[in-house]
Amino acid sequence: MSFPLSNLTSGLRVPPGPVDLAAVETDAAPGFDGRKKDGEAALLALGPELADLQERLFADGKSGGRRSVLLVLQGMDTSGKGGTLRSTVGLVDPQGVRITSFKAPTEEERAHDFLWRITNALPPVGLIGVFDRSHYEDVLIARVRSLAPTEEIERRYDAINAWEADLEAKGTTIIKCMLHISADEQKARLLARLDDETKHWKYNPGDVDERERWSAYQEAYEIAIERTNTKVAPWHVIPADKKWYRNLAIGTLLHDALRSFDLGWPKADFDVEHEKQRLRDEKPL
Amino acid sequence: MSFPLSNLTSGLRVPPGPVDLAAVETDAAPGFDGRKKDGEAALLALGPELADLQERLFADGKSGGRRSVLLVLQGMDTSGKGGTLRSTVGLVDPQGVRITSFKAPTEEERAHDFLWRITNALPPVGLIGVFDRSHYEDVLIARVRSLAPTEEIERRYDAINAWEADLEAKGTTIIKCMLHISADEQKARLLARLDDETKHWKYNPGDVDERERWSAYQEAYEIAIERTNTKVAPWHVIPADKKWYRNLAIGTLLHDALRSFDLGWPKADFDVEHEKQRLRDEKPL
Questions:
Q1: Cβ of B266 under 8 Å from any chain A Cβ?
Q2: Which residues form the signal peptide (chains A, B) (predicted)?
Q3: Which domains does chain A have, with CATH numbers?
């Protein structure tokens, strides 16, 4: 039995207007009729086609094409940005991927405009870039913790839209995803980390303090998504309590973006028969 | 039936002294008794342990450790540097890997010492860096095509040894591999690319011209390997006509290097029970 993925992604795209995250069920699996094992099988089945599409993008980039993909992953701690990456991006050739994890900005980075370090991390043509956190931190944590003046935060929404529009115009398809988990699910995941000695290194007591600001973060996400939910770079809110659904949804978004390029293989810019003859006529080396 | 991998890598390590590449069979599978299907199965079976060891290295790097791995892949065109990467490095979390493909240096790169761009591409602590071509091009193609004066090439062998020794001392384990194919195998692979329209983008007529310098390249490799075959950063010559053997050999070298670190999981630097209690006592968000 196979489960069609064609309806999966359309429901994840955020419609224009105000955003109400509380209205999006975090443990749902919209657009997919199957269960966990079906979802996992569907993602694995997508693997070879994802790998093929990624190689076409890479080949296009090596042959004068200007396209690239930028997958932006945002979400609260433990929402599974790293796990998504392993499960979906891990299906394609690692040479075709450039992953950047954004931490708190360094002193040098803070001395520049907030988009400076982001621009430096953009994927070259032909590659899939993945941002684990991104420029959106500069309107999320920056807003919640007042790391920048209100006017500066306001300016940033517009700056992001202009920057993303420019990027799209130059050939980069941007896929923006918010991995949406509930506060209860985060609590369960933090407790699971504490219960597992091999996961202690991932745990940070500060993450629990940050939970007190949960609703402020949700509000900051709602505002950020509404203000930057443009036609060229729309947002997707991914129900992420179910890891298998989260992975399948993002794998499908990546797949759909790559397939939309409709890329053939680059044509030879040399005489194929002549080259064969040269090799066959070669003197012994 | 299982095939032990413990004897596979020792025979690939180049002994000190002069190097005779012609004496190394390119289509052999030293140290492995099985056939193609056995070799492919053995590499896949290595996958989960490789992934586990890579995650331990990553966790160590996040917890104050200084270790990293640098896998250097060198070889003639079509020797399979990219394929090796896909098959071996593709088995671990892409977030734990940093891949750099070195092309002809840019004007800016040429304005610096040859090790400048190499140093910039080194893996951060906790990561596996992979070089597809490397600083060795500066004593290989540079020697064959006289891109630098003889004295400069001579200087570079010593500079490489000093640089690699420094790197090792700082915590980076260096695995240097020459993927060794025969001229006939290269010819067959080039012809196969010409026969397959989906591979034309990988073909460059200049590669055939370069074949006329085959023996000069082999000699340049022999000299480079002999001069830089140090105790801290020894060379491995990998018979690479058989793709499955090449992949298995390099996967095993990577595995052995990671396992030699003997890394446990980082201990918690916080009170685990206290953290559990805080989460359980939390007021509703």
A1: yes
A2: none
A3: 10-281 (3.40.50.300)
